[in-house]
Each structure stands twice: as C-alpha cells, then as structure tokens.
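Weekly structure sync, notes
Attendees: PL (lead), two postdocs, one rotation student
Agenda item 3: pending single-chain targets
PL asked that the sequence for the first pending target be pasted directly into the notes so everyone works from the same version. It is reproduced below exactly as submitted, 293 residues in total.
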Amino acid sequence: MTDLLYALSRLDALAVFDILLVALIFYAFVRLIQGTQAVQLLRGVIIVVLVAAVLTNVLHLSAFGWLITKSVPALLLAIPVIFQPELRRALERLGRAGSFANRQTALPDAALVIGSIAQACRILSDRRHGALIVMERDTGLQEYADSGVRLDATVTPELLLTVFFPNTALHDGALIMRGDRAVAAGCVLPLAASFAVDYHLGTRHRAAIGITEQSDAIAVIVSEETGIISVAHNGRMIRRLDEVRLAKVLQAIYSPRLVGSMSPWLRRRVQKARRWVRRLLARVSRKAERRAV
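Predicted structure, written out during the meeting:
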C-alpha cells in the first residue's frame, strides 16, 4: 500500500500521458488482431510467458531461467514474422490516413458505377453466373491486376456480364476496378487467412475476404451455386443482398466522401444507409469472433 501511494505521488501530467499512450498502443493492437488468427497466436504467446514466469520465479529453476533469458532476443525477432499480416495492415491504414489530403475526392460519377455493378450483379444472380468484382480505393492493387489480363475499359453492365459469362477465358478470376475503369480481369487474389471464415464458403468468397483483409478494397461476389450476392469489406462479409441493398451498401462504403456535397435529403439517406451498414458489419464481426473462440 505504501509503495502504491508513493508511485501515485510521483505522477504528473507527463507520466499520465505516457501511461495513456502505452495503453492506447495496446488497445489499437488488440483491435487490429480482433477476429483474426493472430488472436490464437497471442493467446499461445501469453500462455508461454506465464508458464515461463511461474517456473522461473516460483520454482526457482535456474537452468530453465537461463534458457528463457537467452531465448528472449529470438522471440522478439519472431514477433514481426508471426504478426506480419496485422503489422502490414496497420502500416497501410496509417499510410492511408496520411494520404487523404493528397488524393482526389470521391468519384464524380460513383452513382453511375455503383448502379452498373448492382444491375449486373442482379442479372448474374438470376442466371447463376459467378462473379468477383474488386473496387480499388486508397490501397493500390496493381500487383494483383498484373496477374490478370489488362482491360482498361469503362465499367458497364454489358462489360461485366461479358467478362463473367461462363466458359469465357476471364470468368474464373477477379475483375479489378479503379475509379470508373475496369483495370484487369482474370486476376488472382490472396485467400483469406482468418480462421473465422465459414467452411462452406467457396474460393471466390475466400479470395474476396482475403483481398479486403490486406487492403481497403471492396469486393462484390455473386455465388455461382446459389446466386447469392455478397459484399466483403475490411475482412467481413455482408450476404444475401438484392440490387437495391447492394447499391446502398456500396454507396455507404465506396463513396462516403460524396456526402458533404449532397443535398440535405440525400445526405440523410446516405448517412442512414451507412449506419445500417455499420450495424450489419458489427453483427457479422460478433458472429465471426464467436466462431473463432
């Protein structure tokens, strides 16, 4: 008790700021790995550290304590390797936050692009034609676009229906969009690394979650087996959408910076749609966390 009072008496504004900064870093790290396979890895690391502390300090095992002491530098070097996807995602988010001032505002004809995608996905769903459309945002996807066939064409419903027509050369890969242009088709994407992904999801859905785990892109998926339309964003997926709901979700996620230039009535509609999307994503996140546990 005396030691606690002595420590509290030495606190000043700078010390409080220092403590809050460290707490904020730990909180940001926990939020970053939430719902990913890094949670299990972190639990394993904590268990190993606790067991080592008990064996070393309580049982006074000198040889084991020497082994742990010599292994700490190697463990510190292994942490960036173990948590590489999470660290990469954090640095990408930091870079995107610093690039807002240097990038253009939202796409002027975003509503036209979103309408084209929604219309095409509705037709593809009715015909049971599978599709995977990736909408690039702040994080560049050129490395994945280079794995496909270059298109550089304006996005229209007719283009999307042609690309994803069965038995064509490009239908089995992803189509990557940049603005209102289709950059490339037949692209290969990374598969999801999260343990929380449903086992019944196919390769298209896993690739959609995988690309949104590693970037801020938005992926639209049409299931070839069921015709269900889904949207993946930030490693989470919203499923069972129709044409209208798909347009609302894309409007809320893809072009939020258009809100400031809208009329008050349309701004309220978009903000309402964004709140609806956030609730859906939060519900999906909670379900994924329960499955991961």
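Discussion points:
- The radius of gyration is 24 Å.
- Residues 2-100 form one domain.
Action: rotation student to compare against the earlier draft before next sync.
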